[in-house]
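Rotation project, supervised by the postdoc (A.L.). Task for the rotation student: set up a whole-complex structure prediction and record inputs and outputs verbatim in this book. Inputs entered:
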Amino acid sequence: MVHRVIVLMLILAAPAFSSIALAQPATSPRAGAAAQEAVPVPAAPRHDISGTWEPANGPADGVQANGVKAMPADGKPEHEPPYTPLGLETFKAHKPLEGYAAVLPAFFNDPRDKCEPIGFPRANFYNFRQTQILQNGYKVVILYEYAQTWRVIWTDGRQLPKLADGGVFVGKEFKESRYYGYSVGQWVDDTTLVVQTVGMMPEDKVWLDTAGRPISDAVRVEERFHRIDHDHMELTVTIDDPKMYTRPWLAMNKFPLKLQSPHTDVMEMYCSPSELEQYYKVFGNAASGVDSK
Amino acid sequence: MKKRFSSALALIVLSWFACLPLFAHHGEAAFSSGNKITMKATVTDWYWANPHCILQFDVKGDDGQVVHWAAETSAPASMINAGWTKRSLKPGDQVTITVEPVKNGRPLGRVLEVVFPSGQKVTGGFSSQLKE
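Outputs recorded:
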């Protein structure tokens, strides 16, 4: 009798185990809405945010053409970041292609226009598309679709470096500012990874978003990756930059992500100076009413 | 050139109407938001590149004058989602194209919709046009 009960339990549990073992979404991305409702999604695995993730509201939801998802540059007062005087002055010096302060293509001065490294945290706010996350016992590695760039989040227990002028101190060792900073992560519960990042580039090298919001080398970025269940995750990003903003504020607030098949072939999305030059030659300059940029 | 463009434009416009802005948040400074022109065109070049693909095409007016246009689309990563490939079009293809023109009156615009020679309809791949 006990033997039969155990066999029955194993049979009932098998679909859940096979789904987790294969790290596949419990529902096919192509299944109809009714089918998706019918299949229960397994619980989130412990301490695991690996997989290929896409914005749950559609592939374009992470493009963020109008600025960071939680504070788009639509002119509404509640979507204005809390600038310091320097922050506001820096914002006004930026000539973005998007948002309410947008200029014509030939006049915009976004470093992205020269294919400068997009950097962190802007990698989360510029064409945040199919994102691959790999992890082992020491680190979590994020592979971004835009510009095929990556960053490492250490989960081996090391301390967050201390911010210094022009870089950070790791113990007594000085290290330079990096476009993608220095990140350490800690699991605060079974399904939430909290990541702190410092040591990024100053405001003349990088922007926060496509609407021209600034970010300085004094910033501390906190990300919370919360895996809700096996197929769903939410990302919350807090910007704490005392040079540019008077208080911390949310750039992403539970941004929803959906797990994709592990067999997904992620597209290339690159920035090519020669292709940009051709764009301006054939279209951008004339659309802006000028002969050259 | 300007006179030829104006007369060609007058002859080839099939629909021109104001509607709700389609691209309220995407680089609209150059574009005449809410306006559309639909034209029968001959492709002269299809350039698959970041940050925008560019479709160049000739439009022949009833007076026989040809106006050369250039129109941008979204980036390849979005274009693939919208049903395009690098080989979707080649010089000589006959298409029907709808663009949102630029404000300054030059034959330039943003692709809203193209009907391929096969009859397949595709959008310009912009964020507001992409479906899940």
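Student's summary: Residues 2-21 of chain A form the longest helix (20 residues).
Supervisor addendum: The mean pLDDT of chain A is 90.
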